[in-house]
Amino acid sequence: MNVIEVKNLTKKYGNLVALDNFNLEVKEGEILGLLGPNGSGKTTAINCMLSLLEFNNGEITIFGKKMSPDAYEIKKDIGIVPQNIAVFNELTVYENIDYFCGLYVMNKEKRKKLVDEAIQLVGLQEFKNFFPKKLSGGLLRRLNIACGIAHKPKLIFLDEPTVAVDPQSRNNILEGIKTLNKQGATIIYTTHYMEEVEQLCNRIVIIDKGHIIAVGTKEQLKKMMELGEKITIEITNLTKKHIENLSQLPNIKNIRVIDEDTLSIHFTNNDHNLLNVLDYVKDNNLNCIRVYSELPTLNDVFLEITGKELRD
Q: Is residue 260 part of a domain?
């Protein structure tokens, strides 16, 4: 079933159209990567889904029910982990998690069990009596997550949860997200770290200028954009004629001259391209210094879809 259905959502800020007939479905049990450049509309879309923003037109249902500011039966099954740290400096790690969990769970005995599980999940056992000001950036991020998920929500919004953390904390956070998903949570995940999306997400939605411009798995998106491997080759006796001949090889998308000896060759797929290039080099007695192949990444797909111009 669809946990979230957004139909024809339009949100305007004066003359600025932030979302224009935006439609989205989030399936039960998936980790959905919601991606977009700065100003694309993804934060506005999330805030509308959570009924934190009024919108001009459209309909949002969560768990099959219409979402609204006072839909508390729906909201109790939602967890939110914002990009900015949202904890109380006057409370310890344990007290912070207990407070946020207590907004949904009144029973103290049940709440204690949930708080302990959340602390275990994010690896804060040794720090539960610390105050936030004594925690590193990575520990604060993990506390932020624990506060948002301690009540065991069915649907979790994670907004760039690994910003400015060390690799160890990032790994801990990503493993925790996988565990939450295995435990049954549906997750909407936003980030600018494309390698995290490749590692975590079952499906990806790319939004720009208030519209969804691409949807699919990472493999489907790469196929959609005809992105295959990139081969970089350095040849000392390279001529224009050789470049012209290489451009006639199968599956070539484009060839870029990096310098007088080096080519970057982009292909539309990953089928025997390196072998074809090396055969040409051998058959024409070219002096190859080095050659290496790279498979396309989600970052390549994202830039291909949204463009490379700087955003505000």
A: yes
Cα distances (angstroms) measured from residue 99 to each of 90, 104, 142, 256: 12, 9, 16, 57
Q: What is the structure's pLDDT at 243?
A: 94
The pLDDT-based confidence of 178 (bands split at 50, 70, 90) is very high
- Nearest CA-CA partner of 122 in 99, 94, 100: 94
**Residue 35: per-residue pLDDT:** 97
Whether the pLDDT of residue 225 is over 90: the answer is no
* Same structural domain, 157 and 291: no
- CATH (domain of 64): 3.40.50.300
Q: Is residue 304 part of a domain?
A: no
182-202: pLDDT as tens digits: 999 999 999 999 999 999 999
Statement to judge: residues 200 and 266 lie in one domain: no
* Prediction pTM value: 0.89
Residues 67 and 208 placed together within one structural domain of the fold: yes
Q: How many CA atoms lie within 13 A of 293 on its CB side?
A: 14
Q: How many domains does the chain have?
A: 2
pLDDT in tens, 261-271: 999 999 998 88
Report the alpha-carbon distance of residue 127 to residue 147 in Å, rounded. 14
Does residue 231 have a pLDDT over 80? Answer: yes
Tell which of 186, 204, 223 closes a domain: 223
Residue 244 · residue 280 · CB < 8 Å: no
DSSP 228-291: --EEEEEETT--HHHHHHHTTSTTEEEEEEEETTEEEEEESS-SSHHHHHHHHHHHTT--EEEE
